[in-house]
Amino acid sequence: MFKRLFGRTADPKLFVIGLDCAPPELLFQQWRHELPNLKRLMDRGQYRELESVIPAITVPAWSCMTSSKDPGTLGFYGFRNRADYSYDGRYIATGQAVKEKRIWEILSEAGKKCIVVGVPQTYPIKPLANGHIISSFLTPSTTDPAIQWTHPPELRQEVEKLLAPEIYDVDVPNFRTDDKDYLLRQLYDMTRKRFVVLRHLLDTRPWDFFMFVEMGTDRIHHALWALHDPTHRKFEVNGRYQHAIRDYYRYLDGEIGTLLERLPPETHILTVSDHGVKKMEGGICINEWMRQQGYLSLMEEPPTDRLTTLEQTAVDWPRTRAWGDGGYYARIFLNLEGREPQGTVPQAEYEAFRDELAAAIQAIPAPDGSPLQTRIFKPEEIYRKVRHVAPDLIVYFDDLGWRSVGSFGHEGIYTFENDTGPDDANHAQFGVWIYTPPANEAGLDGRQLPPAHLLDFAPTVLHLFGLPVPADMQGQVRVGKSA
Length: 483
Hints:
Helices cover 29% and strands 17% of the residues. A nine-stranded mixed β-sheet has the order 7-6-5-8-1-9-19-2-20, sandwiched between helices. Strands 12-13-15-14 form a four-stranded antiparallel β-sheet. The chain has helices at residues 2-6, 24-30, 36-44, 58-67, 71-74, 103-109, 154-163, 180-204, 216-228, 244-260, 286-293, 350-362, 379-382, 457-464; strands at residues 13-19, 46-51, 80-82, 90-92, 114-117, 131-134, 150-151, 209-214, 267-272, 276-279, 282-285, 322-325, 330-334, 375-377, 393-396, 402-405, 414-415, 425-428, 430-436, 452-453.
């Protein structure tokens, strides 16, 4: 079948370029002619916007992509999740939270050699029967000898020797900083070292499937978007960092070129991002709003001389009906009788109260009184399954134009400063998808196609390898004449 469709004579290979947070408007339009390697991939292939999951955030998006399972099925809804229905049980969704098989595990079991570098939620390392892994940005340290961040373990010594005296970075050490020169040095160093390792692996290891994710694109957006976007309220005309994001993309495109020249001619290439990026106007202090509206009660007034989190505040739970979490989106939880330890919302009134609260949140205006285009989701309506402790409501303030701020101590319900450090960008729902056929086959027409969905990635990968797509995968195949 595949030989007939694609004229293939050799066993296929697939190389996946993951660019966290890369937006279609920059790659497909604004900087297309300044990024010759990515442009060549588009010109020889076909490209489209890639709709993310809800929530459009690194965790869970990459795991949703590589498993073709939505967040409800995976059972986690962001970086921080409720471990149970207590008020203080939280956990970070590392790789331990991912119970579904991801694409490299399926391919490895099918006898394919896999190399995986920097894909989120690959720490802690899960040994791979047929391949190599270097873990991702949630890895606590690459210098602590007790922490295993490669598979096989001896790959770590190989990477350390390759980079010595420098160390391998899984992330920018402190991307929420006002020192933009420091940030840029760390960012370029991280990316440079990652590509040294990627080239080494391409040169020294056999592979059928190779996937890496570069986090630098995400970090530079959050750090410098306001100084890049002329429509942002903090934009500085002719500012020193106006072109910093563009210059980084140019550098990154050059590094990508050094990988492309190493690929065998039978290699299919997919370039993907987990979501896009957009300017962030500010934050809505969801718990302060809840307090003012009488949904959330505290034992005493929160301090005004410093910021305090909900966990640092004495909540009067017997008089509280709902509360929220901060982040790029809001997670709203109801204090449900019989579910939470001191629940106050009767089970029989759950749905009516949830609708009331959703309507009230949706009516929150912008600071000038104009309406916000806030979108609110009920997990059971957007996920195939709802596992573990899901939020009762997921809120995109002004369709991600505003973030949710969970802390107290701001002046009113609006803030223009992020309570977790400098950050002037939010995520956008659509990222990028570029499919490029092998060099030994005829190119495609370079067209932009209708959007695909993040969940389409894993079925498409299996299709390219001629392997069956499991019935429980939720996406569709997105290559071929009818895709």
